[in-house]
Amino acid sequence: QQQVKQSPQSLIVQKGGISIINCAYENTAFDYFPWYQQFPGKGPALLIAIRPDVSEKKEGRFTISFNKSAKQFSLHIMDSQPGDSATYFCAASLYQKVTFGTGTKLQVIP
Amino acid sequence: NAGVMQNPRHLVRRRGQEARLRCSPMKGHSHVYWYRQLPEEGLKFMVYLQKENIIDESGMPKERFSAEFPKEGPSILRIQQVVRGDSAAYFCASSPESTGYTGELFFGEGSRLTVL
């Protein structure tokens, strides 16, 4: 019940394209859904987050779409850039415990 | 304004030795979390601590692993009698104490343990 499933495992997108990463969860008690970005050799850093009472949140080129009834949420990266190449983790939190998805390795090619 | 500091960044141990990983949270943060990351895998929760208290250790292996966050000094993750399967990156994260918890974790750069 604490699992967060993430897909795809890896993604190659052309510069300027849209990157889409999907996640699903089981536990309806989760109350916060963050996305983290991790560059090689670094720790993850918070990118954008959403609460379950909101269906969409946009920050610059990054958008989270949240479907509470389907227990799914996704990250869209518009106008993807080579500098966006990193591993992205979706997560869900409850009682200050954050459960992470398995990660998506994104490569944006020129 | 220093971030989460972890040391050592790289640690090599032989099977059977002990590994000690240290984490100093961000200033003003009193919650510390340890996660383990294996190659090509996600971040697995290990333990959540506040000063002098273990709040949730449901992700910690029952044997050989222990964690502490003393009143003074850094949090320590201790792995006794290491085995090759313990080779991984261990990340520490911290969060501030607040009534309106946002769920945001601030991560260190990790300690990479290699067991020979």
Number of helices of chain B: 0
Biggest sheet statistics of chain B: 7 strands, mixed
Shape of chain B: globular
Mean pLDDT of chain A: 94
Q: Estimate percent helicity of chain A.
A: under 10%
Low-pLDDT ranges of chain A: none
Query: The biggest beta sheet of chain A, please?
Result: 6 strands, mixed
User: What is the first-to-last residue Cα distance of chain A?
Assistant: 40 Å
Order of helices and strands of chain A: EEEEEEEEEEE
Rg of chain A (C-alpha, Å)? 13 Å
Oligomeric nature of the chains: heterodimer
What structural class do helix, strand and pairing data of chain B support?
mainly beta
Number of strands of chain B: 11
Query: Alpha-carbon distance between the termini of chain B?
Result: 36 Å
Low-confidence stretches of chain B: none
Count of DSSP-assigned helices of chain A:
0
**Beta-strand level of the residues of chain A, as a percent range?**
over 45%
Outline of the structure:
By secondary structure, chain A is mainly beta.
What this model shows, in words?
Chain A has 110 residues and is mostly beta strands. In chain A, the strands form two sheets. In chain A, strands 2, 4, 5, 9, 10 and 11 form a six-stranded mixed β-sheet that branches. In chain A, strands 1-3-8-7-6 form a five-stranded antiparallel β-sheet, with no helix packed on it. In chain A, strand 6 and strand 7 form a beta hairpin. In chain A, 32% of the residues are buried. In chain B, 0% of the residues lie in helices and 51% in strands. Chain B starts with a strand and ends with a strand. With 116 residues, chain B is mostly beta strands. In chain B, strands 2, 4, 5, 6, 9, 10 and 11 form a seven-stranded mixed β-sheet that branches. Chain B has a four-stranded antiparallel β-sheet with strand order 1-3-8-7, with no helix packed on it. Chain B contains no helices and eleven strands.
